[in-house]
Design goal:
6 helices; Small ribosomal subunit protein uS9; Ribosomal Protein S5, domain 2; alpha+beta; 162 residues; ribosomal protein; ribonucleoprotein; five-stranded mixed beta sheet
């Protein structure tokens, strides 16, 4: 290998590498099990969701209940529908999810994260749209712990009345 000492040398070195080798490194393979499902784990706050998706009619089952039963608030149902809308595959996949920990809002976010990851594993061409929308990034914000000598994480007790 020759020494690269200028920008022209670098351009020449890059031009010498075959384009097929560069493209082969970027191509992602679909990851599905023997039943044709894609699996992913989604997390949000203290909630963890295990999500399986497979081609179907758009049925969503969370902890053995329908999405409308488990997430009664329309806002939470909208959160679950976002990955399908962004990817443009509404009504094409069935979702089976088990979720534990946290509250309903965190659980909805965890299922959304899991669905997004599973969609991009099932069909890698959807990755760009999901990544651009920020759905593949785990939202790492969690509740700050309570400190001793404090009323809550940062709130202090009243210092003085007068």
């Amino acid at each position: 290998m020759s020494d690269i000492k200028s920008l022209d040398d670098l351009k020449a070195a890059v031009a010498d590498t075959p384009a097929a080798a560069v493209k082969a490194a970027i191509v992602r393979e679909p990851m599905r099990d023997k039943l044709g499902r894609a699996y992913a784990t989604g997390k949000r706050k203290n909630a963890v969701a295990r999500v399986w998706i497979k081609p179907g009619t758009g049925k969503v089952v969370v902890n053995g209940k329908t999405m409308a039963e488990y997430f009664a608030r329309p806002v939470l149902q909208m959160i679950l529908a976002q990955p399908f809308t962004v990817a443009g595959v509404e009504g094409q996949f069935d979702v089976m999810a088990t979720v534990a920990g946290g509250g309903l809002s965190g659980q909805a976010g965890a299922v959304k994260h899991g669905v997004s990851k599973a969609l991009q594993l099932y069909d890698p061409t959807l990755r760009a749209a999901l990544k651009a929308a920020g759905f593949l990034t785990r939202d790492s914000r969690v509740v700050e712990r309570k400190k001793y000598g404090k009323a809550k994480a940062r709130k202090s007790f009243q210092f003085s009345k007068r």
